[in-house]
């Protein structure tokens, strides 16, 4: 079980997408787990052949527990195959080689969030399957209206226990029916555990409290004239079909990505035992508010290699999958800096809490029409206020000022996507 | 005859699968009441374009702010 995101310590296995004998490649999604923040897809980080599934559907597994045995090509089998175990709360040890999504040797090793402050962080790859430039996937189609969304494990349990899925109201992201929902319905009793949304609040509370307890935040703010870029975007979008339109949010994310490349002290993870570990790739986290409450901040992997159009497509895909509860574990753990924007309407500034173990968060208010001095005259201009939250263990005011300046320069420079 | 309100709500709940279509009122504002963000709105506009062939420019987004307004707008544009 890979790291699942800050302060999430366990997940329930709800779907296997491979079986013994299947060949797998690095980056393949092999399983789905339910977490405090909804369903997350588990990728594999080594190529080979699946020899054994050591975890059973329905198992609640701690981070670090083995899920499967995968034998690399040419590698000798370490032990004879055994049948998959019955579901149990405590997975038994698996023979070597165990391929939970473990890190490849390629540097830089970006850390996973630690379950506690004292625990050493395992390492994770910077990007398990880097997308080529502009290869951001098209948004995943949503489920058909009126269709029931439930994991195979939830469906199987419903069939076995005679539970009518159509009578259930899913409590997962996007209304998805979770394994736990079927369990509770089958028992005919209210949930023994807190509802998933309460679980999400617990996860957020743990991560944010740890952040504020351990990261000495400081903040740097600048209000930036975005009139030229917004005018350029509006003109461009007026000529483009909906699929080709670009939102201001994508432009702001790209500015943050480029600023992170220019100021690497803001892009990476802080580890208790190693200090700051800069990341080579910019995996920019994008904060997405969920309608039922709570939020997720999945990362757009290797966004530094993407064009503006690629970032826009990637953001659409992340939002669509966040709504449907189909984010990947790597997206939840390997962000190197996060952008949290208030959208196109609303408050003018936001000073955010850094998402550990990252060391910077870019908070962006909604555009505001303000009197502005341009060439010695006061004129109406649309402006956006950037507030950079930075980790004082890693950076100081001068470094933060360089980031803010780099961001402002990017945002104020209209260019073709 | 196409029921444009039904089409709109169907696409709305594809983009926002956590919204129960039976609870959507004619006057519900898709952003203020139903909490769609700007990315959701773009996804909705793209879905309506794909389904009905109606290209809704950004300046017309207020015309689809509620199911009632959207139904009238889509009927006029698709007809």
Automatic annotation (TrEMBL), chain B:
Source organism (scientific name): Roseicyclus persicicus
Any Pfam family matching the protein: PP-binding
InterPro entries: ACP-like_sf, PP-bd_ACP
UniProt-recorded name of the protein: Acyl carrier protein
Residue ranges of every copy of the Carrier domain listed in the record: 1-78
Coiled coil segments of this chain: none
SUPFAM superfamilies: ACP-like (SSF47336)
Top-level taxon of origin: Bacteria
